[in-house]
Design brief:
35% strand; binds magnesium ion; 275 residues; five-stranded mixed sheet; single chain; alpha+beta; 18 strands; binds 2,5-dioxopentanoic acid
Length: 275
Amino acid sequence: MSLYRTESGCIVEHEKKLYLVGSTWDELIARDDLEKHLKERVSGTRELNKSVEESGILAPIGSQEVWAAGVTYYRSRDARMEEAKSAGGGDFYDRVYTAARPELFFKGTASRVVRHGGKVGIRSDATWSVPEPELALLISPSGKILGYTIGNDMSSRDIEGENPLYLPQAKVYNRSCALGPGVVVSSELPSPSTEIRLQILRGGELVFSGSTLLSAMKRDLATLVEYLYRDNVFPSGSFLLTGTGVVPPDTFTLAHGDEIRISISGVGTLVNVVG
Ligand code: DO4
Ligand code: MG
């Protein structure tokens, strides 16, 4: 079952049929019984006769905060150690990769989040920008994982590499995050064989393609959520991007007009253009 936020309202896709649900996004995300609630809501409801696209797809976020985990894959640890080497920061990344406490950072709010099909941003003062394809968890105010979607943790690698203390500037700026298209609502977490794939097209030509499996992630999803919610209250719930395991080569930087396609098996494809 998937949940979409659209200009016509919240839409549920259940057994290949679409239904309009007359509740706000935040009302739904406040429910720990979301999956059961949506199943009840759609039974006996008339099927919607227009597609999610025709309904005007929006980013699946209301008042939720977006947070992100870092260095959860060996590939990210490696890339970060290399980019921060001359700044003496390489060691931090190795230490956080093996530490019990994960790296968690604030990524943004709805105003910085772009919908499927929208334009993501690169910083005007960055020289090395990349997308980060990540599984994003949707978590209720009480800390229950309600479902998951696709996240793009846009990053300025030259800025974070210059000094790890610049991380918030490298990560949080206008249109620095994309989420969607919708959320898979499920009490079951995605399986370790779930594939996360990134493709970047420039002028219609594929300039980068890479993928990883969820099984390559070093951290346990529930433990990441437990750390995020420890001594921290999220009255409207939250999204947690769970880190990247796909990093383009160091010679690659995004340019205006590039198309970024992130696919996660069982979820779909999130497409954005740099603009
Ligand atoms: O520590 C820097 C950011 C790491 C990150 O965003 C990732 O591993 O996905
Ligand atoms: Mg990331």
